[in-house]
Amino acid sequence: MARKKAEPEKQDQSVPDDKRLKVKHMEISDEYMVGLPKMTLQQACQYLKAHPSDAVIIQEGSKVIGLINTQTIIETIANGKVSSDMTIKEVMSTDFLKVNDTDALEDILPLMYEKQPKAVLVVDSEGDFIGYFSPSDCKLAMKQMKFLED
């Protein structure tokens, strides 16, 4: 009877958690401003006119309740829902994903791809908002992940 060769033990190829690229390693403190629910749509538009790829994150106290960006405003106008005294709370999107700043990018990118949220908000261990993971951050994260794989 022929003996089978022993297979070499496979080395664990996973990266230690402390070496994984985390959300907090991305630039999450730019590309947004925080607005209060009573802020007018006109005020938000003035900001977004100067920063068209940014978002206005809407907070009540320490809780994020929504956001608007240029796409939200275009959808609002296209639906004929604009008045001069509208607040951002009236048109905000609540289609966002919350991730923790310690989450590994390789874990959240598939979730972002699956859910396709309008925005990804970053919270700390207490659940408080600390940043915005923009579409450009997502593209950069994918490039960095690809670079690390090569």
In the CATH classification, which architecture applies? Roll
Low-confidence stretches: 1-13
Overall average pLDDT: 82
- The CATH topology turns out to be CBS-domain
Helix content: 25-40%
What's the total number of strands?
Answer: 6
CATH class: Alpha Beta
Multimeric state? single chain
Brief summary:
The protein is α/β, with parallel strands linked by helices and 150 residues long. The chain has five helices and six strands, in the order E-H-E-E-H-H-E-H-E-E-H.
What does this structure look like?
- The chain is of the alpha/beta class and 150 residues long.
- The protein has one domain (22-149): CBS-domain.
- It contains five helices and six strands.
- The strands form two sheets. Strands 1-2-3 form a three-stranded mixed beta sheet. A three-stranded mixed beta sheet has the order 4-5-6.
- The longest helix is centred in the C-terminal third of the chain and has 15 residues, at 135-149.
